[in-house]
């Protein structure tokens, strides 16, 4: 019994020694790998330090330049553009569209000058929308479409407005298929005021084009989805007319 236990112990000790030796070898190899990686990285940096430092300096200059541009040029430009556009917006709200475009008075720029003088600003972009609507009201539909297409719509409301104005332009030009497409786009957005407004425009144009069932579906959709809207208060007479 004693000899069996001793033999087992000797085998265990030998296996333990072998395992420890392997572990020590592995640790040595890992240490060698780390040293090699460190030396390799050091050598790479020494050989390419000018390039690396140049890249870092370039990144710093780009970031610094952007911050300076944003704070010392763009922000004041945005403020100046908004101040210049105030008078043109006032004329626009008075339905003085020609004056709003070119000569709003008081020494202020019209929308067209704001587009030229303040390109890249939010005001310059918004001036495209105002110009498009102004030309639409003046009956100059090609100019209206050019400016609306140049307007970069963002947010929740302006994409709806852009699609709706394009629908109005195409409708005035007699291109009713495109007008219907744009009204559908405007009506597809979820907005309690604008969506039913453009649904109604869409339905009325569809009725005029003889698309009776499509128009009826739109009027019923207004009643179903936007029962509190202004458009919903008027749909019953249209539904009754089309169903009769």
Structure summary:
This protein is mainly alpha-helical and 244 residues long. Helices cover 81% and strands 0% of the residues.
Helix content: over 70%
How many runs of DSSP E, i.e. beta strands? 0
Order of helices and strands: HHHHHHHHHH
- Round the Cα radius of gyration to an integer and report it: 36 Å
Alpha carbon gap, first and last residue: 110 Å
Gross morphology: extended
* Average pLDDT, all residues: 82
The portion of residues forming beta strands comes to under 5%
Number of helices: 10
Q: What can be said about the biggest beta sheet?
A: none
Low-confidence stretches: 9-13
Structural class of the helix and strand makeup?
mainly alpha
Describe the SSE topology.
Layout: H1 2-93, H2 97-102, H3 111-117, H4 122-137, H5 141-150, H6 158-173, H7 176-187, H8 194-208, H9 212-225, H10 235-243
Helix pairs in contact: 1-4, 3-4, 4-5, 4-6, 5-6, 6-7, 6-8, 7-8, 8-9, 9-10
Keywords:
244 residues; mainly alpha; 0% strand; Serine Threonine Protein Phosphatase 5, Tetratricopeptide repeat
Task: Explain what the structure shows.
By secondary structure, the chain is mostly helical. Among the domains are: about 55-150, no CATH class; about 175-244, Alpha Horseshoe (Serine Threonine Protein Phosphatase 5, Tetratricopeptide repeat), CATH 1.25.40. It is built from ten helices and no strands. It is extended.
């Amino acid at each position: 019994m004693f000899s069996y236990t001793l033999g087992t112990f000797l085998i265990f000790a030998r296996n333990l020694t072998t395992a420890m030796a392997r572990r020590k070898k592995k640790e040595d190899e890992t240490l060698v790998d780390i040293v090699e990686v460190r030396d390799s990285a050091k050598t790479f940096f020494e050989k390419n330090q000018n390039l690396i430092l140049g890249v870092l300096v370039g990144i710093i200059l780009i970031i610094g330049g952007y911050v300076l541009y944003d704070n010392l040029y763009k922000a004041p430009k945005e403020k100046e553009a908004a101040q210049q556009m105030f008078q043109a917006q006032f004329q626009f709200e008075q339905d003085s569209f020609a004056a709003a475009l070119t000569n709003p008075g008081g020494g202020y720029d019209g929308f067209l000058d704001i587009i030229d003088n303040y390109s890249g600003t939010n005001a310059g972009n918004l001036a495209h929308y105002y110009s498009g609507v102004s030309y639409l009201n003046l009956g100059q539909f090609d100019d209206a479409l050019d400016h609306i297409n140049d307007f970069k719509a963002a947010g929740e409301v302006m994409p709806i407005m852009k699609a709706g104005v394009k629908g109005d332009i195409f409708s005035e030009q007699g291109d009713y298929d495109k007008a219907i497409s744009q009204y559908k786009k405007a009506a597809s957005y979820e907005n309690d005021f604008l969506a039913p407004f453009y649904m109604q425009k869409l339905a009325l144009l569809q009725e005029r084009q003889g698309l009776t069932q499509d128009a009826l579906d739109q009027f019923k959709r207004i009643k179903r989805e936007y029962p509190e809207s202004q458009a919903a208060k008027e749909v019953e007479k249209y539904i009754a007319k089309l169903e009769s």
